Amino acid sequence: MAFLYALPGAIAEGLIWGLMGIGVYISYKILDIADLTVDGSICTGACVCAVLLGSGVPVWVSVLAAFVAGALAGMVTGLLHTALGIPSILAGILTQLMLYSVNLFILGGKSLVAVDPRANALWVHMSDNPSSILAMLILVTVVILCLWQFFYTEIGLTLKSTGDNPDMSRAQGVNVKRNQVVGLAIANAIVALAGAMLAQYKGSANINDGRGAIVIGLAAIFIGLSVSLKIKPNFVVSLIGVLGGGIIYYIVYNLVILMGLKTDYLKMLSAIIVTVFLAVPYLKGEYFTRRKSLRPQDMANGGGEGA
After folding, report:
1. What pLDDT digit, counting tens, does each position of 261-279 carry?
2. What DSSP assignment string belongs to 57-93?
3. How many domains in the chain?
């Protein structure tokens, strides 16, 4: 019964983190860039939204401002990588470090800023999970439709080709560096949008909100894709799968808490989940490749001389 009571909250928060996973999907799967900016940009989105709401700014303006702030953070990472030649993973780490100070400045030197649900007409809040789920479903539907339309335009297709084969794209006259900056801006804008929704849902923005966010995003991707690729491997299905992966992750997360696991070990649980979903396809491929490479007579003799 406790699990059933906790289920609506797990779904609502899973949708928020699934939206964040969509942003990570764009950088990790489409651009083929391991972008660690997201640990900072999700917190930036939360901080911007919370501070503006506290100043009496309408919700939609606060969310839009968080979206733009995330895009700027992604552009910084992109420019560090493309204009200064810094490796993408290091560029993301540098931007993440910068964003810690930026986020602290946005919060006015405080570690936490509260959002009063009575003073603001919030889109989502943990006090009303059914309405929060509906609002998040509408938002993620809009985001997925916009991404679907964008990535089938000429610019969107060149972004995909940049991630698939940058050398070939460059040979075809595609501005690979510009595409990487644009792609990282879009990815982190969506991550910051998720941060804005998270601040509303929790009723606060914390300077440490983004710590370990990349692991949750990757968990949503690998859980979702392991299911969605069995249905129909296209762009929209993959995004829906990532969203579903976020929900599944948070349902398991809440179930584990209800079973009595100490919260101190939840980060380790997240890392183990990602490790499993990364390792299983590799081990499965290695096993079947080796089995197929062995001749029937070798298998009969226990795998041959090298077994």
Report:
1. 776 777 787 778 778 777 7
2. --HHHHHHHHHHHHHHHHHHHHHHHHTS---HHHHHH
3. 1
pLDDT of residue 301: 55
Structure-token pair, residue 267: 């980060």
User: Are the C-beta atoms of 84 and 94 separated by less than 8 Å?
Assistant: no
What is the DSSP-derived secondary structure letter of residue 265? G
Whether residue 305 lies inside any domain: the answer is no
Distance CA 303, CA 127 (A): 60
The low-confidence residues of the chain, meaning pLDDT below 70, are 1-3, 227-233, 263, 281, 284-307
In terms of Cα–Cα distance, which of 193, 192, 166, 168 is closest to 179?
A: 166
Show the domain range for 251.
Answer: 2-294
Q: What is the CATH number of the domain that holds 247?
A: 1.10.3470
- Give yes or no for a contact between 194 and 16, defined as CB atoms under 8 angstroms apart: yes
Inside any domain, residue 307: no
- Give the count of alpha carbons within 13 A of 17, CB side only: 32
